[in-house]
Structures are given as structure tokens and as C-alpha cells.
Amino acid sequence: MGVSELEESSLLLDEKLLRFMDQLESLEEKRATLNSLIEQGWFSISKARYSMGNKQVSALQYASEIEPLVCVHARTLDNGEVDFSTERAQQKCSKEAGLDAKSVEDIGPQEEGIRRRIRPKKDITEKEASGEASSEKAPEVTPVRKCDQNPQQDPLKWFGILVPQSLKQAQTSFKQVIELSAEIAALQTAVLNTRQELKRSMKDKHAAQENISAAQSDKVAD
Amino acid sequence: MAGRGKLIAVIGDEDTCTGFLLGGIGELNKNRKPNFLVVEKDTSITEIEETFKSFLVRNDIGIILINQFIAEMIRHAIDAHMQSIPAVLEIPSKEHPYDASKDSILRRAKGMFSAEDFR
Prior knowledge:
The complex is a heterodimer.
Chain A: H1 2-52, E1 70-76, E2 82-88, H2 90-105, H3 121-130, H4 132-135, H5 165-221
Antiparallel strand pairs in A: 1-2
Helix pairs in contact in A: 1-5
Chain B: E1 7-12, H1 14-23, E2 36-38, H2 45-57, E3 61-67, H3 68-73, H4 75-80, E4 87-91, H5 104-110, H6 115-118
Parallel strand pairs in B: 1-2, 1-3, 3-4
Pfam families (chain B): ATP-synt_F
GO molecular function (chain B): proton-transporting ATPase activity, rotational mechanism
Keywords (chain B): Hydrogen ion transport, Ion transport, Transport
């Protein structure tokens, strides 16, 4: 009975150890990919800095209003592991890219129509004739803001309207890095979780072993 | 902000922060508190540690990315963090390549095979 229990726990331990090794291997692979992607990103940033000027790509260019375009969903699984998945605000992004393009063209006065500062005499006489009715009219110029300033804009725009291709490449690399980092974070928690399980199983096995040896020594004593 | 997800915070040198912010993780909340810290030559270790700890207690942060050479400066704080959320991820920096033997998580995993565990 005791021996079969011991065998069972040993098998379980082996299974967990193999899973642990698999997870470590996968973690190492992903780490290598992440490192190379980050390197690629830095290289692209450096290239952009070279073509734009040394001070054009720095922390000073960050916008005063920054909204996240990507978020991560953390889901705790039954076995205690945490699954991280990234979500990008894609729809908003594309919509806002369109709005941004508009706002770039609309440089100039925000108000529509021509504002008349000095009214011609004709207007005044007409006004007098129509009496109070015209005075109730809405003012000629209604200041209408075409679109509110959009804080959730593409971070590329912080560095200028026409940014070099290398900065776009840097953005692409870092987007991939962000996705990969969520996967790695999930894998890290999985590794730690498996390690805990492994420790527990090992203790169980040791306890079973001790029981067997105690039983055997009792038999010998009898 | 998309949905009700959590943020990714970053503590790193200028290029690392710029890169991740380009990727779209940056946020300045209502209190004008950012979810990133650009570490420069004159940034003190206390400031880094305080920022790291403030990220740990913020419940809207899911992952903290930190350059490994900065993580080395506040290793005790990183080792003390045992929860799975926020997850702490050590990343390389331009001047310091990633060294797996320094990584807190991997060191914990390696601890599995110490003599103490086999006792």
C-alpha cells in the first residue's frame, strides 16, 4: 500500500518536474525574442535620433496628456496561475488617427465664419426697422470648436507630424515587446506556481518515504 | 483607456521609456501621476524605490517593467515582492545586457534545486 503510494507520488513529481522544465525552456525562448526585439527598437530610436536631431527624440517630447492605448487583463486561473493578455484600443486608434489628420489640416482660427467687428450703417438701420425681433436673434458668429483636443493620440505625433520611418519601426518593435512581455509575465507566474507545487509534492514524497521506513523498522523490531 | 484592464508600468532609462511609451503604455492619471519613471544619472535610488513601491500598491497596474541594472539597485524591494499581480519583469538596457542569473524570478526557480529542497 505504502509502496504504491510512494510510486504514485514519484510519478506525479516527475510529471511536474517535466512541466517545470518545459516552462523554463519556453520562458528562455521568449526572453531571447524579447531581448532581440527591444534591441531592434533601440536601434530604430537611435536611427530616428540621428535623422531628426539629438534632442528631438527624448523625454522632453512626451505629451502633457497621456492616455494608455494598451492595457493588460489579468485573470487568475483555478490552479493559482495568472494569465495576462494585452488589449489594444484599436478602433479608437484608427478613428482618432482620422481625427488627427483633420486637426492637422485645420490649423488656424477655431471659429467658423467671418467676425464683423465694425457693423456697416445699413445693418444698423435694418436692425432698427425690425425692432426687438432681431435683437433676440442668435449672434452672427457662434464659436464652434470643430473637435475637442484629443488626448488619446498616437504617441508618434509627440515627435512631430512627419516622423522618420525608423521611429515607426521602433514603435512596431515595442508594440511587439509589450505583447510578449504579457506572455512572459504569465509564464513567470506559471513557473513560480509549478515550483511551489513541486516543493509540496516533494514534501509529500518525503513524508511517505519516512512512513515506509518507520513501518519497516517496526517490523524488524517485532 | 480600453476596457477595465490594468496598466503596464515602466522604470527605465530614457530610450526604454520612450520606446514603451511609443508602444502606447503611458498614462498620466487625474492626479498627474505617470506610470513610468525615466531614470537618469542624477535619479536617486530612494526615488526609484519609492516609485517602484508606489507602483506595487497601485491596483491599476498589472505589470511592472524594469531595466535589470535598475532592478539591481533595489533588489531587496523586488525580492520582497511575492504577489503575482503586479508581475515584475526585468528587461535589458542599452548598456547592460540581460543576465538571467540576476533575475529574481529565475533565481527563485533555481532555488528549487538547492540542497535544502532535497532534504
